[in-house]
Specification:
about 290 residues; mainly alpha; about 0% strand; globular
């Protein structure tokens, strides 16, 4: 008898990595909401980045890859990390002021912003399909936020601007990965954002020292942030984005449930309707890109 050929386990492994990314992103949001009652966003980013620097130095040394940490393309690293620092601060502000489900639904527009910014930064062409995808995604934002004088809040505005900043970060990351390793990108991410955090947190001369209960939350935020990036990268290395990224949508119902249980946030079905529309737009874009590759 002919021995059965082993099945390709890459998609299954990608699924588990993506579930790890979902868990890490959700954990970071919950810890960020909890610690926001004590620290402002700049202080959270400072301590988060300090944890990240320690982790990245340890990883580089223990893996024998310290030689890979070189000061190359620093201008591009700086622009990318400034965009990410801005987006991350706005994101932490948003999760502290509006329901978590709204933040995550709006955050799903980051790939759409990346789609629109890619022609400006990477010189890629933008198609009519891409413009249609962007239109559907922004219709989803309108459903999620239902903007009016009564519903407007700086938290919603912060979430939208954070999505734009994350989209910019994604495009700049794609440019950096042409000749920079993931280890180097993450190392300079944490180091530069620590410097930015110290400057912004200390500009008023009053940097809060975290309490004992806040310390494990800050460690969790730092570790979860790096774990999320690592899991996402690992998943995309094993399977196409059109296969693994739909799993990311699990974050929305999960964080909505956690928000209701832990922070007594109200259930808003329109967030799921708009979020589903944003997800559909992203999926159509990913599927069309996969067919062209």
């Amino acid at each position: 008898m002919t021995a059965a050929l082993p099945r390709d386990t890459a998609p299954i492994r990608a699924l588990f990595w993506m579930l790890g990314a979902v868990a890490a992103f959700t954990t970071m949001a919950l810890a960020g909401r909890a610690v926001s009652f004590e620290l402002d966003t700049f202080e959270i980013m400072t301590y988060r980045s300090a944890v990240g620097v320690v982790i990245m130095v340890a990883v580089a040394v223990l893996s024998g890859r310290w030689h890979d940490i070189r000061a190359e393309r620093m201008k591009l690293h700086g622009i990318r990390n400034l965009a990410h620092f801005t987006g991350q601060n706005l994101w932490f502000y948003a999760i502290a002021t509006i329901p978590l489900a709204q933040v995550f639904a709006i955050e799903f527009t980051s790939p759409i912003w990346a789609l629109l910014l890619a022609p400006l930064i990477l010189g890629e062409t933008i198609t009519r399909r891409a413009l249609a995808v962007a239109g559907v995604g922004f219709a989803g934002i309108l459903i999620v936020t239902r903007p009016s004088l009564e519903t407007f809040s700086f938290g919603l505005l912060a979430a939208a601007c954070a999505a734009m900043a994350f989209g910019t970060t994604a495009v700049l990351t794609r440019r950096l990965t042409r000749d920079q390793s993931i280890l180097r990108i993450l190392f300079w991410l944490t180091v530069m954002q620590l410097g930015l955090g110290i400057v912004c947190a200390g500009i008023d001369g009053d940097v809060a020292v975290p309490s004992a209960p806040a310390l494990p939350l800050l460690v969790t935020i730092g570790a979860a942030g790096l774990a999320a990036h690592f899991c996402l990268t690992a998943a995309l290395s094993l399977a196409p984005a059109a296969i693994v990224m739909p799993i990311d949508f699990v974050r929305l119902p999960l964080v909505a449930l956690m928000g209701m249980l832990l922070f007594a946030e109200p259930f808003d079905p329109w967030v799921f309707v708009g979020g589903a529309l944003i997800f559909a737009a992203n999926y159509v874009n990913l599927a069309s890109r996969s067919r062209r590759l």
